[in-house]
From TrEMBL:
<dbReference type="InterPro" id="IPR052155">
    <property type="entry name" value="Biofilm_reg_signaling"/>
</dbReference>
<dbReference type="InterPro" id="IPR035965">
    <property type="entry name" value="PAS-like_dom_sf"/>
</dbReference>
<dbReference type="InterPro" id="IPR029787">
    <property type="entry name" value="Nucleotide_cyclase"/>
</dbReference>
<dbReference type="Pfam" id="PF00990">
    <property type="entry name" value="GGDEF"/>
</dbReference>
<dbReference type="InterPro" id="IPR043128">
    <property type="entry name" value="Rev_trsase/Diguanyl_cyclase"/>
</dbReference>
<protein>
    <submittedName>
        <fullName>Diguanylate cyclase (GGDEF)-like protein</fullName>
    </submittedName>
</protein>
<dbReference type="InterPro" id="IPR000160">
    <property type="entry name" value="GGDEF_dom"/>
</dbReference>
<feature type="domain" description="GGDEF">
    <location>
        <begin position="297"/>
        <end position="428"/>
    </location>
</feature>
Amino acid sequence: MSGQQTLISEAYNSEADWNDAPCALVVVDANFCILRANACFGGLTGASEREMIGERISRKFTTASRLYLESVLIPLLHIEGRCHEVALSVQGNAEPSPVLVNISLRNHLGPRVYDVALFPASARRSFEEQLVGLRQDSERRASWLAQLEKLSGVGAWTYEVRTGRLLWSDRVYELYGVPHGAQVTLEMALEPLSADVRQGIESITKDPELCVEPIVQEFDFRHPLGQVRRFKIAGQYSLNHQGEPVIQGVLQDVTEAHNRQVDLWNAAHIDQMTGLGNRYLFNAELGRRAGTTRTVEPFNLMVLDLDGFKAINDTFGHHAGDAVLRTIGRRISKLGSSMTFRLGGDEFAVILERHHGADTADNFARRLLSEICRPIDIGRQDVNVSASIGISAFPTDGKDSDAILRAADFAMYAAKNSGKNSYAHYRPQLGERT
């Protein structure tokens, strides 16, 4: 025990706690006569508490220990008010029992009363050995955790629900760019996060018992140095070793893995020339919107083919043609349609929502033709192209993706046959004529 030990009367309030204490406990008055003793002290001395009440405590020690207690410790206790781990021997029915004695004066007004704790020396040695073993095991575990954090890049955190205290491992400090060991709060941890992630975590802390299953989220994190990183957080409600409610979890920097996933997705879905969606993404999006198992939401499909593009390729070369395609892609995107795609060659497509009235497709088509017709700088001179646009409407002109695309193609060829640089809506007669 330390010199700042809790008073025995406060530490062992109930009778069961008093008698089940791992050491001998005694309360004595100013004359060091026993007022109270627990069963452990009775076991050391071979006497019951009733037999010991009123007896001077020094009589329970061997002769040498009694002399030391009476001549040295008691006068010192009247002055200092305490002694810490003095080695003495208690006289029992059999052999003397070596003990470590702690005595402290109660710090309150009233009659002078001392609390005495006696720890059997053999048990103390065993306790110290266990403590050393636990400390070594703790150090090993801490070393393993540090190595795992270093290798995996994963940091651990704990939020104590009752106290509101937040604990971070070294790796979490590194991820946040905060000095190791600095005091952190939940507000500080949430501040760099986006509003939706912040609200989600706050809702868990306010009602943690709802967090039965692990909560896993990815979010963008703005580092103090200005970098934007991608973090992954996981947490779950539980009770710690003291039975206190906590939310525990891990934090990981997944920026590289996230960027690889984005790159792979872009490689599979984005046209590298124009930055628009490619044919694969177009087919997937058109199938999703025109699928028979989903609620019907009307939209327009526009398919456009550039007029005069082949002449630019033949005259100025493919580099000039690529520059034209990139410019047309930017111009289509700038108009703010729902989704834009390059289907291949000089063919593009637009999926247009129908939220603003029946003439939306016509207005958009006219603006699109105007944008495309503007001169395009290819480095040596300006060139001009135009477009023929075919428009179909879902579900009016087709009940599935194949039908709606075929209708838009019919309309596009009708616009091209009518003189180019124009748009046309699908009509059933176009299909019949073809």
